[in-house]
Amino acid sequence: MKKFIFVLLLAVLVVSGCGSKTSSVQQPKSEKLSGSIDDLMAKGKDIKCNLVAKEGESIVSGTTFISGTRARTDYKNKVDDKTAVSTHMINDGTWLYSWTDENPEMAIKMKLETLASDALKSGTAQTQADEAGLDNYQEKFDYDCYAWLKDEALFSVPADVNFVDYTTLMENAQKTLNNLNSGNNPAMQNVDTKTMCATCDNISDASSKSMCRQQLGCK
Questions:
Q1: Which of 1, 72, 107, 118 is deepest in the core (most CB within 10 A)?
Q2: Does residue 20 form part of some domain?
C-alpha cells in the first residue's frame, strides 16, 4: 500500500511540473508599426506583419512578410460590400508583381522605380495601377509585427500566371504620344490617334489592349 501511495505522489509531482513548465512558455512579442510596405522594409528585419483592419475599410485582412529588400503581401478586400477578393503582391527588389486569385489574367508587373515616376501620375495610368492593387502597396497602414524565419517559397512568383509588363507598356505608349505630338518625325506626321487605337485593337492580350487604349485616350 505504501509503495502504491509513493508511486501516486510521484506521478502527481511529474504532472504538476510539466504543467508549470508549459504555462511558462511566452507568446511571441508583437511590435506595433505604421507605414507603407517600403516603411516596413526600412526596418531591416525579417518580420511578419498582420494588418490591423479598420471598421468601414475595404480591406478585410492582410499579412505582409518582409525579408531584406523583399516583401510579399496577401490581403482580402471587399468588392461592393460582397465577397472578399484575394490579392497578392511580391516585391523582389526590382519588380513589383500584383495578381488576384479571382482574375489572374489581370496580373501585372512594374519596375519599382516606375512607382515614383511622373508617367504614373497621369490620371489614366494611376487609375489603371490602382485597379491592379498598387495603391495598397503605397498606402500607410497599422500593423502588428512579429519576428519570423523567412520562407523563400513565399517570394517565388507563380509560374502559371502571365504578368503584363506595365512599365514597358507605359513607356511605349508615351513614346507614341510624343511622336504624334512633336511633328518632328515625318513617318508619324500622317498617323492620327484613331490609327494608333486601331493598332491597340490588334493586341491579343485583353489586359494589354485595355491599357494601350487607355494610355492613348481611345474612345
A1: 72
A2: no
* Strands ordered across the beta sheet of 108-111: 31-35, 141-147, 47-51, 59-67, 70-78, 84-91, 95-100, 108-111, 164-165
Indicate if 65 and 128 belong to the same structural domain.
Answer: yes
- Give the Cα-Cα-Cα angle 88, 139, 106 (nearest 5 degrees): 35
Host domain of residue 199: 168-216
C-alpha dihedral sign at 108, 112, 114, 120 = positive
Number of compact structural domains in the chain: 2
**pTM score, two decimals?**
0.67
